[in-house]
Amino acid sequence: MRRASISWQHRSLPWAWALALSAAAHGWWLAGPHADAPPAMATRAISTRSIEPAALIAAPAAITERKHAPPPARRQPSAPKATAEPPPAEPSIDPDAVRIAPPREWTYLLRQAGRQGTARLSWQPQEDGYRLLLTRELDGKPLPGWRSEGGLDAQQGLLPRRYATQRQGRQGLQDKQATNFRREEGLISFSASSEQFALASGVQDRLSWWLQLAARVSGSPQRFGAGGEIRIIVAGLRGEPVEWSFEILGDEALVLPQQHVAAALHLRRAALGPYDGAIDVWLDPARDHLPVKLAVGLADDHGWGLELLDDAPPR
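and the corresponding structure tokens:
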């Protein structure tokens, strides 16, 4: 038994010495600084600032405003400025530049599609206005007539109030389609359409322009030489007023069926479209520049023309 105890002590002695030496070394290290000790780690100074509670409250509001604020408007490229089309220029009429023809009645030779007939034009100016009527017949059969009524002005000439296409009925010629010039309201209206248009100064109908053209040229013939133009605004049967521009081609000698005209002023309006062809008119200065010849070009051989046969004061 004693042998076993000695043997155990003999084996434990090295471990006891090792433990004692380790404890002594550790105490010596902690006792103070040493030359070969590593340098101390640098300490970073930390600065602080106080944050008011209001700032903590305001921050979310600012974020909300930025979140819901509309995005900045994108700058659009500037569009080119559009220039409005000006309305048709109204023909300028100088004072005392209009001369109204005296009452007359004309008989014309009517030519249309290789056939012949007659047309009669009655012009009746009066103190309270005028009446203008054109009747036509072709191969002995009546064609639609045209009637224009209105007022007269010493400076503006003819002022139509009503224009109508007439057809033969049981009680004579009756209005079928009409254009009304409502001067008190400043409007043009049509019996065959619900459309209305502004009434321009000097506007004419499909028949009154004959006499208006004569009145203007007769009032100042020196103004209308070859190479010039005459402009008149004319209202159609179912459309808005359109400016007609007549080119002045100059004086021409005419050989009419029953007489000669030494020098008639030839005017031409170019075609306005496929269904409204050119118009040529010849005005005789010896007859107050009234039309002695007229040629109207239309599609499908519907063009027609007039040549003066006879003219006389109304009976």
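(Above: one complete record from the training split.) The mean pLDDT is 77.
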